[in-house]
Design goal:
This protein has helices spanning 13-26, 40-54, 90-93, 97-103; strands at residues 59-65, 68-71, 74-77, 95-96, 110-116, 150-154. The chain has 176 residues and is of the alpha/beta class. The radius of gyration is 16 Å and the shape is globular.
């Protein structure tokens, strides 16, 4: 997600997604679906379709680059059309990481989620709080997967913020 409509645009996610897609293609993955700048309806549809595609796969990988936020200990991926006027809008306008993990349940051996989304909450200063006690965090919360054979990689440690970078993509090549 780069082209946000109600939040600052991010320079690197599209470029990073291309690099990651090429890496997995080179590694021999059968299906690579590199989607860009989806609104909430399309993001939910793509996750549902991925759930069907990854069912019975040996390995399934989700790579997400864009804005991510944490509210009350739950992590959410922010689609390009999110407005998030109020914290009450979170469940309607974003996709929870739990939903992404649920989409991987049919995978046989390894489930990998790479979240290049530990960014400052771009809605933090404008989002109204429905309850004063509701926690809207910086970065993403730590999560321990409940499914076996599941790895979640974050761009920064829990609660920390990862910047969008300077636009340069670093590539490394390792021979085995």
């Amino acid at each position: 997600m780069s082209k946000y409509q109600q939040a600052p645009r991010l320079a690197n996610p599209a470029r990073d997604a291309d690099v990651v897609a090429a890496l997995f293609k080179q590694a021999g993955f059968d299906t690579i679906n590199n989607q860009r700048d989806l609104g909430i309806v399309d993001l939910r549809r793509v996750i549902r379709e991925f759930s069907e595609t990854s069912r019975d796969a040996d390995i399934a990988v989700v790579y997400y680059a864009g804005h991510g936020i944490e509210v009350d200990g739950t992590n959410y991926l922010v689609p390009a059309d999110a407005k998030l006027v109020s914290d009450f809008d979170i469940e309607n306008e974003t996709v929870s990481l739990d939903r992404v993990l649920k989409a991987l349940e049919g995978t046989k051996r390894l489930r990998l989620v790479i979240l290049d989304a530990c960014r400052d909450n771009p809605f933090a200063n404008t989002m109204k709080r429905s309850l004063a006690s509701r926690s809207v965090g910086r970065g993403l919360a730590k999560i321990e997967p409940t499914m076996t054979d599941t790895l979640i990689a974050f761009a920064a440690k829990a609660g920390a913020v990862a910047s969008d970078g300077d636009g340069a993509t670093v590539r490394s090549r390792r021979r085995w």
